[in-house]
Write a structure and sequence with these properties.
The protein is mainly alpha-helical. It folds into 2 domains: 1-41; 43-101, no CATH class. The protein is built from 6 helices and no strands. Helix 1 (2-15) crosses helix 2 (21-40). This is Iron-containing alcohol dehydrogenase.
Length: 101
Amino acid sequence: STILAHGIQAYKDSQAKKRSDAFDTIAMTVIFTTGIVSGCVPMAYNSNMAHAVCYGCVTNKETEENHLHGEMVAYGLLILLTVDQQMDELQRWLPIYRELG
């Protein structure tokens, strides 16, 4: 996947305030996939588990003020993979999450 291949480097470049091919690739991937999903999926389906976790997290003021929407959705994805018993996929993503902190 593009995110697995370029995500960590894009994150590091972003933290260093450096524009790079990895950063551009991830930015475009996020923009395009978000646009496609937003255009194809009814709003009622946006409350999948990952987003439900995010929406629950933002009820805590400190969490909302100190974490980005994407961070909370990413956390929700780990929960989704666990509940859905997609352990191979969970194991594929955990090293990325650990490296990103």
